[in-house]
Amino acid sequence: MVHVSSVVEWIAAIWLVWTYGDISSDRSWRMLSWGMLPALIGAMCACTWHFFDNISALSWLVTLQAAMTVLGNFTLCAAGWWLWRSSKISVNNE
Q1: Which of 2, 83, 87, 72 is nearest to 35 (CA)?
Q2: CA 22, CA 37: separation in Å to the nearest integer?
Q3: What whole-number distance in Å separates Cα of residue 80 and Cα of residue 39?
Q4: How far apart are CA 45 and CA 88, in angstroms?
Q5: Residue 14: its pLDDT value, please?
Q6: Is pLDDT at 83 greater than 90 in this prediction?
Q7: What's the rounded Cα separation, in Å, for the pair 21 and 5?
Q8: Which of 25, 52, 66, 68 has the highest CB neighbour number within 10 Å of its CB?
Q9: Which of 33, 35, 37 is nearest to 21 (CA)?
């Protein structure tokens, strides 16, 4: 149940970040929400594998989950850099 609640929480966070980007008209927040998607996919892989009682036929989900975690770490790092850069640009323009 912990995995499922984490997935729901992650979906809500992505939606809230996207909405904040729309309201603030700052597209860098949208980049953050896109950067969160690989981690969400990885979490969904874990939920699926556990839902089917860790059967060996779905062991490829473990590999996909690990790959999505690595990709998600990079995309979240890039999105964080994008936010940092855009905040510096907006401060310099004021």
Answers
A1: 72
A2: 18
A3: 15
A4: 37
A5: 98
A6: yes
A7: 24
A8: 68
A9: 33
Q: Tokens for 69, please give them.
A: 């975690």
Token duo for residue 34:
């896109």
Distances (CA, A) of 42 to 12, 45, 71, 89: 16, 5, 10, 33
Tens of pLDDT, residues 2-31: 778 999 999 999 999 999 999 999 989 999
42-76 pLDDT, tens per residue? 999 999 999 999 999 999 999 999 999 999 999 99
Residues 6+ apart with CB under 8 A from 72: 35, 36, 37, 38, 39, 41, 42
Residue 79 CA to residue 13 CA, distance in Å, equals 15
pLDDT over 70 (residue 94) = no
CA angle, 3 then 43 then 9, to 5°: 60
